[in-house]
Amino acid sequence: MRNVGVLAHRELGAYFLSPIAYAVIAIFLFTSGLAFGLGVFTSGGEASLRNMLNFWLVLILVFVLPMLTMRLISEEMRNGTIETLMTAPVTDSDVVLGKFLGAFLFYLVLLITMLPYPLLLRMYGPVDMKLLGCHYLGLVLLGALYIAASLFFSACTKHQVIAVLLSFALLALMTFASDALAQLFEGWTRVVLQQLSVQSHFRDFVRGMLDTNHLVFFISLTGLFLFFAVKRLEMRRWQ
Amino acid sequence: MIRVGNLTKRYGSLVAVDDLSFEVERGGVLGFLGPNGAGKTTTIRILSCYHPASSGSASIAGFDCYSQSMEVRRRVGYLPESTPLYPEMRVREYLNFRGKLRGMGWGERSAAIKRVTDRCWLTAFVDRPIGQLSKGMRQRVGLADAIMHEPQVLILDEPTIGLDPTQIRETRNLIKELGEHHTVMLSSHILHEVEQTCDRAIIIASGRIVASGSMQELRNRFSTQGGRVIAEVRASQNEVESGAKTLDGIEALDVAASNGWVRLAVKTLGDRDIREDLFKLSTSRGWTLRELRREGANLEDFFIQVTAEQAQKAKQRSSINA
Prior knowledge:
By secondary structure, chain A is mainly α. Chain A has helices at residues 2-17, 19-40, 50-69, 71-79, 81-86, 92-112, 116-121, 129-156, 160-182, 187-196, 198-207, 212-238.
C-alpha cells in the first residue's frame, strides 16, 4: 500500500513536469467556462450548474480524462521503463492503483478549478450547499470511472493514440449511446444497456438525489476496470 | 547465488531459451555471452522477475524467481538493455523515487544517493533533468539505480552498448570493482568485453549453452584446437602447394599468389608448431622466405565457431520437428 502512495506521488509530479497537464487544464477551464457561461449568462438562463452538468461537462470529461490517463502505462511500455518498474519490489496492483490515484488526484485539482462557478452563482441567490456537495460527489465518482476505464486501455497498448481513441469510443458509447441503444432491444439486453448508461446514473446526482444504486454502479465499475488493468499487466508478463 | 535449472521460454512456436541450466557462485563477474538473438535478454528477464519461464526453474539467493518474486527483486539490481529512465525527472528525484519503491527510509536514501552518485561519477549532474543527459550519463544513472540498495546480485544487460571508448573503459572498471562486493552477471555479444571484465563466462547460442567456465579454462579449451602458421615465399604456386603437403601435422592448407609472392596459410593439428619444418623446406627448395609467423587460435574464432555450430544444430532440430 505504501508503494501506491509512492507511485501516485510520482505520477502527480510527472503531470506538473510535462506540458500536457497544463494544456489539459487550459482546455478544461476554457470549455467548462464556456459551458457555464452559455448556460447561465444568456437570456432565460438558469442560475444553477444543472445545464452544464447535464450534458456539457460530461462531454468534456469524456474527452479530457482519457487524454490525462492515456500516458500512464502506454508511455512506460514505449520507453521501456515498465521493465525497471515491474522488476522493482512492487506488485502489479500497486502499479495500477498508484497510477490511478495519481491521475485521480490530478482530476481533483481540475474539480477545484471549478469552484468559482458556484461562487459566481451566489451573486444571483443562495447556493444550496447540499446540492453542490451532491454534484461534486457525482463528478468525483464519474471521473474515477472514466480514469479507470482509460487506464485499462492504456495498459492494453504502447501507442497512446490508440489508447485514447479506444477510451473515447467506450466512454462515449457508455455515456451517451447506451440509453438510445437500449430502445432497440427487448428483455434483459435492454435492462443491461439501460443500467450501463453512465448518464442516467449521473443525472440523479445532478438532481441532488443520492441513491445507493448509483454509488454501487460507479464504484463497482471503477473497480472492475482497475481489476482488468491489473490482469492485463499480468498477462503482459507471459507474452 | 544464481541457479538456473532446465529453463525454457517459448514465445508461441519460437523457443528463445531451450533447456538452459547453470549455477553461479557468490562474488565475481560472470559474462553471459552470445550473438544477438541467442536468448540472453530472455534469460535475464526471467532472472530479474520481469517475465516467468515456460518451464524449468530459476532462483537467486535461494529464492524462486516466480513464486518468491518480491524476495528476489529486493536482492537484485537490474539494468535493462536500453537503460529506460523517466526523462522529465532529475537524477536525484529519480534515485529518490527508486529508493522509496524499494522501501528505503529517508536517511538511508539520501546516504545511498550520495554513495552511488559518487561511485558513478554523477555528483555534478544530480540536479539535471535526465532527458538532458547524454547516453553515457544515462547509463550511469541506470547503474546507480541498480546498485543503490546494495543488491547481492547485479544483472546488467549489455551495459556498454552505445558508449564511447572512454566511457566503455570507465564502465568496465566500475563493473570489475562491483564484482568485488556483488555477484555480477553481465550480458554481451562482444567477446572482447567479456574477456576484459569477466572472471567466468557462459557462451550461449540459439537458447543453449555451448561452452562455460573460467576465462582461463575457455582459453585452454580452444588453444588445443590448433593454430595457424603463415608464410610468404617467392616461388610458383603449384610448387609451394605440393611442397607444403609433404609436411606432417597439417589439417588444412590455403595458398594464394600475388605479385610473385605466394602466401601460405597452414592450419595445424593440436599444439604442433611447423615453422621449423617450413623453414627447412623453403631453404632446401631454394625459395626466398620473407615472412614466417604462428598465430595462436583466438577466443573470437572459437566463439564464432561454436555459435555457428549451435545455430546449425538448432536449424536441424526445428526441421526435424517440422
